[in-house]
C-alpha cells in the first residue's frame, strides 16, 4: 500500500492556506452586524429629509453617487496629516449616531508649517468637480461627535472658485449630537470674493468638514446621517 507523505514545503503551504481561510472567516464574522441598524430618526418637525448618507452600507459612496474623501495641507506645502488619508480609499468607521453601526470619522494633527494648516473630510455630491443644484433644499442636518474643537462645515461650490466657501463654524460635541443648519445661516469666511448664496447652492460640489485654527496636536471628528432638509 502506497503511503501518502507530505514534504515540509507542502505542509507549510497547506498551513498558510488554512491560516488564511481562518483569518478570512473570522474577518467576515466580526464585520457582520448582529442586526440591521435602527431606522433613521424622524426629520425635524414640519420638514422633509433627503438622505445624503448614513454610512451603513459600508462603502465610500453617498446616496447621491459621489465619493467620500479626506484631505490635508500636504499638497499645499504643509505637513498636517489626516487619517485615513486620501481620495478613493475612504472606509466608514465603526460606531454611529442614533444606535447605528457606522459613521465617517477622521483623526490626525494640524501643524503650523502651512500658514493656514488644515485637515478635513468631505463627500462629493456627484463625480469629483461635478456641481449639483441643491436649491430645492433649504438646510442640512447631520450628527456630529468629536474632540470639542471648532470645525467648519462647508459647501464647496462652483460659485466660490476662490475657495472662500459658504459654511458654518461649530464645536464638535463629545457625544453624538444632532446639528441642523439652515442654508440662510451659512456665510463665507470673508477673505475671498463675495458670492451670491443662491448661485452657490445652484452648483454645490461637495460637503466638507474642516479644522479651524492651528496647531492641533490631535484631531478627532465623526459625522453621520447627513441629510438635506426641505
Ligand atoms: Ca454609502
Ligand atoms: Ca450611521
Structural summary, described in words:
The chain has 230 residues and is mainly beta. It has one domain (43-229): Galactose-binding lectin (Jelly Rolls). It is 13% helix and 36% strand. The protein is built from two helices and 13 strands. It has helices at residues 8-31, 197-201, and strands at residues 49-53, 68-72, 81-83, 93-94, 102-110, 119-124, 139-146, 150-157, 166-171, 177-182, 187-188, 204-211, 216-229. Strands 1, 3, 4, 5, 7, 10 and 13 form a seven-stranded antiparallel β-sheet that branches. Strands 2-6-12-8-9-11 form a six-stranded antiparallel β-sheet. A hairpin with a 7-residue loop joins strand 4 and strand 5 (102-110). The longest helix is centred in the first third of the chain and has 24 residues, at 8-31. It is globular, with a radius of gyration of 22 Å. The mean pLDDT is 92.
Helices, strands, pairings?
Blueprint: H1 8-31, E1 49-53, E2 68-72, E3 81-83, E4 93-94, E5 102-110, E6 119-124, E7 139-146, E8 150-157, E9 166-171, E10 177-182, E11 187-188, H2 197-201, E12 204-211, E13 216-229
Antiparallel strand pairs: 1-13, 2-6, 3-5, 4-5, 5-13, 6-12, 7-10, 7-13, 8-9, 8-12, 9-11
One calcium ion binds next to strand 5 and strand 13.
Amino acid at each position: 500500500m502506497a503511503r501518502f507523505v507530505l514534504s515540509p514545503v507542502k505542509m507549510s503551504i497547506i498551513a498558510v492556506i488554512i491560516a488564511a481561510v481562518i483569518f478570512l472567516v473570522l474577518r467576515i464574522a466580526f464585520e457582520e452586524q448582529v442586526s440591521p441598524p435602527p431606522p433613521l430618526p424622524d426629520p425635524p418637525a414640519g420638514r422633509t429629509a433627503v438622505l445624503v448618507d448614513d454610512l451603513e452600507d459600508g462603502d465610500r459612496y453617498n446616496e447621491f453617487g459621489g465619493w467620500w474623501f479626506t484631505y490635508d495641507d500636504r499638497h499645499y506645502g504643509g505637513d498636517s496629516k489626516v487619517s485615513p488619508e486620501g481620495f478613493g480609499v475612504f472606509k466608514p468607521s465603526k460606531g454611529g449616531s442614533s444606535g447605528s453601526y457606522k459613521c465617517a470619522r477622521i483623526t490626525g494633527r494640524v501643524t503650523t508649517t502651512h500658514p493656514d494648516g488644515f485637515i478635513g473630510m468631505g463627500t462629493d455630491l456627484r463625480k469629483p468637480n461635478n456641481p449639483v443644484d441643491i436649491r430645492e433644499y433649504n438646510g442640512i442636518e447631520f450628527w456630529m461627535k468629536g474632540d470639542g474643537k471648532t470645525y467648519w462645515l462647508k459647501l464647496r461650490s462652483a460659485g466660490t472658485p476662490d475657495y472662500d466657501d459658504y459654511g458654518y463654524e461649530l464645536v464638535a460635541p463629545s457625544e453624538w449630537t444632532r446639528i441642523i443648519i439652515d442654508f440662510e445661516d451659512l456665510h463665507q469666511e470673508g477673505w475671498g470674493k463675495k458670492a451670491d448664496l443662491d448661485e452657490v447652492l445652484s452648483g454645490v460640489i461637495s460637503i466638507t468638514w474642516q479644522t479651524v485654527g492651528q496647531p492641533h496636536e490631535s484631531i478627532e471628528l465623526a459625522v453621520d446621517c447627513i441629510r438635506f432638509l426641505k
